Amino acid sequence: MQDLYREHILDHYENPRHHGVIEHADISHEESNPLCGDRIRIDVKLDGEGNRYRIADAAFTGDGCIISQAAASMLLEDVVGKSVDEVEQIEPQHMLDLVGIPLTAARVKCALLGLKVLKTGIKLWKLQQT
Amino acid sequence: MNDERWAAGQAGALDARSAMLDVRRIRADFPILAQQVNGKRVVFLDSAASSQKPIQVLQAMDDVYHRAYANVHRGVYAFSEAATQRYDQAREKVARFIGAPSAEQIVFTRNATEALNLLAYSYGRHFLRPGDEILITELEHHANFVPWQVLAQEHGLVLKFIPITPDGRLDLDKLDELLTPRTKLVSFAHVSNVLGTITDPRPIVQRAHAAGAKVIVDGSQSVPHMPVNVGEMDCDFLVFSGHKMLGPTGIGVLYGKRELLEAMPPFLTGGDMISAVGFDGPRWNDVPLKFEAGTPAFVEAIGLGAAVDYLSALGMDAVRAHEREITAYALERMSEVPGAQIIGPNDPEIRGGVVTFTLDRVHPHDLASLLDREGVAIRAGHHCAQPLHIRLGLNATARASFYIYNERHEVDALIEAIYKAKAALKR
Description:
The complex is a heterodimer of chains A (130) and B (427). Chain A is of the alpha+beta class and 130 residues long. Chain A has helices at 7-14, 66-79, 84-88, 92-99, 105-129, and strands at residues 27-32, 39-47, 54-63. In chain A, a hairpin with a 6-residue loop joins strand 1 (27-32) and strand 2 (39-47). Chain A is globular and about 50 Å long. Chain B has 2 domains: 3-52 and 315-424, Aspartate Aminotransferase, domain 1 (Alpha-Beta Complex), CATH 3.90.1150; 60-312, 3-Layer(aba) Sandwich (Aspartate Aminotransferase, domain 2), CATH 3.40.640. Chain B contains 15 helices and 19 strands. In chain B, 51% of the residues are buried.
């Protein structure tokens, strides 16, 4: 049983990194997983200009299962400092590798919710820029 | 398949001393339950979503495909006549099972959801007028919720809700206030798929009829688990799904009072549901065929007939007694778990075989995943009853549900797995 919720997952759930809200964020986006009600909101502060923006800071809030919340924490730890373009290229498998535990199909959606919120937020931000 | 032979065999599964089920003998009919999941023998506690199927049901369907398959109501040759005869027999079995006066009052649908949509489409769109009221309850499954929301929005109807009490029963004190001369339809779950609450339909039916409303009973969680008799309930319609009562997927039932079914226009149109088609228009077939356009799921209906034989041989009183006992035991064991909160009535007399709960600081999905590691299959989420969860102030709950093949030691396995999950999460 322990292999499913390894120490690092529980640690991210109990002590989430980048947890909270960023005032005057450049990107704020929230989505829910309709199946289980997991909810995640991500705020992003950008710096840079033109085509060279990077993630200066990011924070999330939400509620839901351990996988969804811990994955969001791991994701933000991973993306802060990266360029927006890099983040847009992140494959779902990268997120699953970060989580690093075997997930059934239904739980994969939980793990990917944060990435979906972040990517959609970036997409909407880019639309606003044009 | 010789119906009498295996039905007689099943009758022996009733333990004469206690009128309880001989679960060990029943389990021999469900080879799937001997499977292992993650190295553990499966403990299947999600029958409220869909039940497992005994070999008798699988064989009845297999036998049609192997020995007597041809389209029903068409051919004059032997295969077609044999299939048609078995299909008609299945309809008669279902009618007897719920105490319907005639097999013509049994309409086969895809499932309870389709039966409710049929009613919303055919009865609702034909007989209800703007300003009319439909009364449902706060605890309904989406299947008995969304069709009425859509109908109300499209046709200017008013949708009202019978509230629930804090312990999860319908608050019938509000019924007189909610029933008005404009109330044309009342629809409610006989047994809640989340709270397990068993509602006695008779007082609601009587008061609704007195107010001039027709009554639909959603029997999805009652017909598989307890004696249900449409004559005694006096409901106007009853809907249920085959796959929750040992039958296959893709087959469900709408029972209706004859004069209502006859007055209703068809739902889907096409072949089989007409008596004649000319260039000037069609003439509808008689009930129930008027509502069964196209080639029906007759093999599945025959499978449902075999499921009804199986349950009848056990006796629905014995089925209910078994579930009441195992539910009482599960409620008792669950109440010992620190941090566990049981949702719904604590009294097993008014609770079907459903134990829904939350666990302090453990999300139901995490719990379900951890239990799966132990081979224990439970459901987690909102169980297609989001409005109820909003009312309860919960995002999600965990649910263990029981059927004829579940044993007390499986409740023990569930509790033990919950303790293990708590330990794994350091709760």
